[in-house]
UniProtKB/TrEMBL annotation:
<keyword id="KW-0547">Nucleotide-binding</keyword>
<dbReference type="InterPro" id="IPR027640">
    <property type="entry name" value="Kinesin-like_fam"/>
</dbReference>
<protein>
    <recommendedName>
        <fullName>Kinesin-like protein</fullName>
    </recommendedName>
</protein>
<feature type="compositionally biased region" description="Pro residues">
    <location>
        <begin position="212"/>
        <end position="221"/>
    </location>
</feature>
<keyword id="KW-0206">Cytoskeleton</keyword>
<dbReference type="InterPro" id="IPR019821">
    <property type="entry name" value="Kinesin_motor_CS"/>
</dbReference>
<dbReference type="Pfam" id="PF00225">
    <property type="entry name" value="Kinesin"/>
</dbReference>
<dbReference type="GO" id="GO:0008017">
    <property type="term" value="F:microtubule binding"/>
</dbReference>
<dbReference type="GO" id="GO:0003777">
    <property type="term" value="F:microtubule motor activity"/>
</dbReference>
<feature type="compositionally biased region" description="Basic residues">
    <location>
        <begin position="35"/>
        <end position="44"/>
    </location>
</feature>
<feature type="region of interest" description="Disordered">
    <location>
        <begin position="203"/>
        <end position="224"/>
    </location>
</feature>
<feature type="region of interest" description="Disordered">
    <location>
        <begin position="14"/>
        <end position="51"/>
    </location>
</feature>
<keyword id="KW-0493">Microtubule</keyword>
<keyword id="KW-0963">Cytoplasm</keyword>
<dbReference type="GO" id="GO:0051256">
    <property type="term" value="P:mitotic spindle midzone assembly"/>
</dbReference>
<keyword id="KW-0505">Motor protein</keyword>
<dbReference type="GO" id="GO:0016887">
    <property type="term" value="F:ATP hydrolysis activity"/>
</dbReference>
Amino acid sequence: MDFSEFLIRRKFFDSPGKSPTRRCISSRPEPQMRSRGKTPKKKGNSTQQDPVEVYCRIRPAGNPEDETCIKVLSENTVQLLPTDGATVRNGQVKEFQYKFQHVFDEYTSQKAIYDYVALPMVEDLLHGKNGLLFTYGITSSGKTYTMTGTPQDQGILPRCLDVIFNSINELQVKKYVFRPDKMNGFEVQSEADAMIERQRREILPGLTTPKTPTPATPKPPKFGEQARLRDMCKVDDIEEDNNYCVFVSYIEIYNNYVFDLLEELHYDPITGYRPPQSKILRTDNTENMYVHNCVEVEIKSPEEAFEVMYKGQKRRKVAHTALNAESSRSHSVFNIRLVQAPLDPRGEEVLQDPERVCISQLSLVDLAGSERSKRTDNMGDRLKEAGNINQSLMVLRTCMETLRENQKNNTNKMVPYRDSKVTHLFKNYFDGDGKVRMIVCVNPRSQEYEETIHVMKFAEMTQEVMVARATQVRFDIGLTPGRRKLHQQYKDAAAANEVAALPVVPSLVYSLGPSFPPMELLHSSDDKALRILEDFLNDRCNRRHTLNTDFNKKEEEFRARLVEMEREYYRLTSKNEQLMKDVEKKEKDMSKNENKVRALERKHEEFTKYIQTLERENSIMSLKLEDKNWKINLEKTERERMKHDFKTRLEMNNYAWEKNMVSTCSEQLC
Ligand SMILES: Nc1ncnc2c1ncn2[C@@H]1O[C@H](COP(=O)(O)OP(=O)(O)OP(=O)(O)O)[C@@H](O)[C@H]1O
């Protein structure tokens, strides 16, 4: 490519809002007669299928002088070819071509990748559909760069957060209206209850949960605090009569254990921070997999989200390796869950109907890179990590291959999702519905040629796996459309006193009437003045009596209500106590069961290891047996050969002896 072509490409991809074919604003979806509560994603819901979409991104070579092994042939084809010194087999140069949904060359900007690959998934999320986007490739191929980027050149994750908040900004519900129910679902509570919870958690001192004490080391600048270039894009066809709320969670899968990156770590003044406990995967009541007891943070702005993301990133396991100064040693999963529910008929508050709550999820996964130990020279922990990374990526491959085989041949082979935590967690995306997209990151260095071939083969094969298309969610539930706007107009008009016909509630004015009339008593027979005074005082007495009666009536009513409320309060308190006891008991049971599950998992692991050892021993014994059989056969053949040899010799001896005898006899006869 010459310099002018390079400039044209840069201009095209770097200009904000421009991408190869996508616009920032999404188109309105076809409405359907369906509403949805939680995330029931079963294949039966949807009949149409789409393939897993795979995109290829080539990172710039670390050193412009380096030889490269990849060439972009068209916007969806790349060629992989070895350079001098690379493997040539049977005298033939191994070069391959691979086709993808789109190929992004080394000049493509982060914005272009986001617009092309991730923006449609954000649109889906806002329309109530699920999505899984993951980056895949060898170590140091640019997966983390593509997913996270830098504050000045943000990757997919921060851009997704920016666009989500740009889109739902004024339609967000107040904090704690939606609450995670700890079983992968959400509860909805009234704004009054949410306000009480806000006060309890944020305002009343001492009631907030104790935070992990921060270490004395100075904090590095947060992702959100640096000069961040915000993505200004917005999805503008979202349902305005819904209220929205965003929850995020951040986990990592390290050595096939799931850890919560947002969990508060307990601090012991003597021993320091307690190491985090691994989490278990569970199935919710709609058969969806989730990480049990994982912290889900409700966020109201991208800045809050970045703080959470940054907190998680600090805890991610990264290490210096021969191929990457900051190599991810774990698979990380950033989950964005959008909870939305329609407004009530007055357009004022969220409808208190859990059946109308719609939860959609976008999982952004940065997989750890595959690496060959002989190239990285890893030792100790790094080697063990690399082994686990390669093992889990292998399971991912096997799952994709089995899925493709099942779909192609209409067979029902078991897909080994459970063999690795990554595949187990994302089982629903492949068995259920939603969009699945993968970005294959490629390092163009010629030394990576051999490993890149495996990555490309897997990526090309993955495109043949089909995933059920998510059905459109219908949010129109028969209430007046545009009620949010109508309510706002009403409120504005009431504030400006422009609504003449606003209903006025008549109320008794508590006043004893006008003040004393002006009069002068000149002498004791001034009857006129005395009559006026008498009338005035009678009027006051009457008024006082009416007000007293009204006050007493109201007081009685108030007392009755107060008594009723107190009774209700005591009833609720005792019910609450009972519920708390139940919850405590259930929590105890749950933790007991969790311990049991952990113990069983440990046992399972031990058994697996034992079986592996037995299998190894078995294979060694088989080899020994084969060896012995071979030796026995050899001895048998040797024995046969000797037998045959002896027989021949005997025959020859007999023959010689006979001949000898005949000649001796004939000599004697003569
Ligand atoms: N498109 C790109 N433009 C500029 N720099 C890039 C690009 N892609 C990757 N890099 C740089 O390459 C280096 C390695 O990238 P990164 O850490 O993202 O690799 P990775 O695939 O996540 O590796 P690992 O699997 O070991 O974690 C980083 O310094 C990153 O800044």
